Amino acid sequence: MKIGELAKRSGLSAHTIRYYERIGLLPYADRDSSSQRDYDASILIWIEFLGRLRTTGMPIRDMLRYAALRERGAGTEAERREMLERHRDRVRAHLAELEASLLVLDSKIAGYAGPDQRMKDYDATPPVRRRKPVGARTARAR
Amino acid sequence: MKIGELAKRSGLSAHTIRYYERIGLLPYADRDSSSQRDYDASILIWIEFLGRLRTTGMPIRDMLRYAALRERGAGTEAERREMLERHRDRVRAHLAELEASLLVLDSKIAGYAGPDQRMKDYDATPPVRRRKPVGARTARAR
DNA sequence: ATACGGGTTAGAGCGCGCTCTAAGTCAAGA
DNA sequence: TCTTGACTTAGAGCGCGCTCTAACCCGTAT
Question: B4-13: long-range contacts at Cβ-Cβ below 8 A with a sequence spacing of 24 or more?
Fold first, then answer.
């Protein structure tokens, strides 16, 4: 499979695939007689996993660490596992934050829809703050 | 409240607070006789809400739209509500993606811990791909 | 023969969201 | 009076993760 095909199948752009190889996220690909990358379908599984790491917010520098361990292979399992466990915990924490914020969004939306069209105060601009009216305080258009 | 105090209380840096004002996320703050910003505690509620939007991944340009509507005040409720509803839907979708990826992480971790120390294949580096062995294919150290 | 649609490289550029710097002002305390 | 520390502004700089450009190469179809 050449890079264009892999791009289609993986959802990454060819540019991004080359970039990932350059930085070491993807293993250096075999080249055919014309120096063109020739991929085995098995790379798709790795790319999909990378996508999971990215989706869950792992920074590239950490993915690189993981990828390097993976390439070293045997003997690195414990460390890889620890990385994933730490990452999973961060993802769980992030998930909890998102859920909390989602609740806030929901109640805010409910506020807009509520029988009482008036906001629960914390949305309306505070009634023209004008404390310490010192000097010429023009409104300054933005 | 001056900017340092607000920074402490809001968790934003003073730099970031000024930046937010500059771009329009925070309303232009009243200045005291020495041109120093003087905040009303009510701003904290708005900043906290901005934090929710940021946590849930809303781009600043969208927050700006929302902030502008908020400042226009009356008559913009419907649009603000629609924005939040669309955003909420995106957050829910993202949440679902995260949860799916979390499952993958969990099973991957389980694989590392499993009774069978051998990976379910898709983690081990594929057994030295060497298809189309054309030309001098040096391993090229990385 | 030539045009086309892929591919190759090194390296520049970009959008985002801050984050920091430089040079200056001001008020309070020793 | 002098120092200190918190503030002011305009604007530069940064880390991230791509994304694109330029110039070139190659194999196939017309």
Answer: B5/B39, B6/B37, B6/B39, B6/B43, B6/B44, B9/B44, B10/B44, B10/B47, B10/B48, B11/B51, B12/B47
